[in-house]
Amino acid sequence: MADSTQAEQRSPDVDNPVSSFEVGIMTVRGSWVGICIKFSMYDKATKITHWSPHAYSLLVEALNQYCQHLGANAFMFRAKADPSLVASLPARHPYHTLLTETPLLTEAEIGTAGFASGIDRATFAVRGPTFELRPEFGDGRTESIYMHEYTALSLLAYLQEYTEAAKKLTGPAAGNA
């Protein structure tokens, strides 16, 4: 497996990976009906995605499988065990960009799910230390969104905590978006 301490994992097929993200919950009448994820990309552009409960479940399952695939070799776990690993990381490594490049997600963006940003189906692939999301948007378009392992595992942990909190506040997923 490639060394994950390099600057953002760049390769010919991964030219604009996610540098950070923000998550919002979509609700209808007090019940959550999906998750909005705004990705900040390496080139500083952003992407808004609205995940249905079905697609969201697939995303969390795929991220869990990716975490198991990486195992103890994941940079996140190695950095926790040996903090000196982060001392020489460049400023644009996901370890840093997750905090320094977090996009601002507005309520209007969370509430504007539509065909162009709505996702009901997605596939996922592992490309070395990179996790590839391949969502199919409501308008039929597919797109690849690449994440460094540190970003993918951070997203998994965030989504797990976020949905647990959302369930306590709004109840189980139900309804239509």
Write a structural description:
With 177 residues, the chain is α+β, with helices and mostly antiparallel strands. It has one domain. The protein is built from 5 helices and 6 strands. It has helices at residues 53-70, 75-81, 94-100, 107-110, 149-170, and strands spanning 18-28, 31-41, 46-51, 118-127, 130-137, 145-148. Strands 1-2-3-4-5-6 form a 6-stranded mixed sheet, with helices on both faces. β5 and β6 (145-148) form a beta hairpin. α1 (53-70) crosses α5. The protein is globular, with a radius of gyration of 16 Å. Mean pLDDT is 84; it is low at 1-10 and 173-177.
Short description:
The protein is of the alpha+beta class and 177 residues long. The chain is built from five helices and six strands; from the N terminus they run βββααααβββα. The chain has helices spanning 53-70, 75-81, 94-100, 107-110, 149-170, and strands at 18-28, 31-41, 46-51, 118-127, 130-137, 145-148.
